[in-house]
Description:
The chain has one domain (4-309): Alpha-Beta Barrel (TIM Barrel). 38% of the residues lie in helices and 15% in strands. It is α/β, with parallel strands linked by helices. The strands form 2 sheets. The protein has an 8-stranded parallel β-barrel with strand order 1-2-3-6-7-8-9-10, surrounded by 4 helices. A two-stranded antiparallel sheet has the order 4-5. The longest helix is centred in the C-terminal third of the chain and has 16 residues, at 239-254.
Amino acid sequence: MGKLLENISNIPLGFGGAAISGEGGGYGFGQISEDDAIGLLNTAKDMGVKLFDTAPIYGFGVSEKRMGKAFAKNRDEVFLVSKSGVSWHENKRVNMTNDPKETQKMLEQSLRDLQSDYIDLYMIHWPDEKVDIRKPMEVLSKAKEQGKIKHIGLCNTFEEDLNKAFEIDRVEAVQCQLNLFEQEVVERLFPYLDDKEISFMSWGTLDKGILSKRVDESRTYDKEDCRSWAPWWKQMDNKPKFEKLKRIWPLIEEYGHTPIELAIGYNLSNESCSMVLCGARNDQQLEGVVNATSNRPSDDVMKKVMEIILED
């Protein structure tokens, strides 16, 4: 059967859509004009990136709308990924639910915002302990029969929900956090995904900029960047990471590698990882992440890095 994402592109890199929607609010990483965002998306496509990942919460719809405008005339040349489950009220209070009515509503809105009759991969964004995963899966299975979505996926999921989801329809892709500091999915889920031939793509590949060396203890953020206000970021103690990275940066530089090459190289060193998601906010950043996919650190370098990472 083979895995869904293995043959989408020669580059195992997906464009993370939260990077182009900061001023819209919600989950985003700083201001970028619509023209610049659309230009960046098309540059990514021209460089060989084919998968573009988005969600309604990225800019409260801004990310999807910009992708819709960018690819309206060449829709068949890209592979679009979007999600249901994280919506919002009129006052922009975030609402997380997998209620099937909300799933249907969000799918229809995403189709409109993406200016497309179909979405290549549609995913349930987060588990919802109040709603059996089989209920939204029924909505997605029907939508697949109607041609509105081509493939179904789950994000941030676990084995029990995957088993239940398979009772309704096949799950072809899973998206979870994976990076040098967040490795739990490797043992928890990869054996299951390999057994079921389910593709895996990583979010958090650069750990919100920490692993690209663009974020350190002195970094400040503008108001359009969710890292300036989000509790999950402000309450996070990243000091232990920074201390380890102070030892890792000189090591990889000695071997001629950049921080981004290390971050992407680690994820792709896991054979179960078919695709890494990375955001970019300008052409220089985009070129950096694209080039990093083909210039990965050797096993010897990675071993030395992991010894530091795994130290207590």
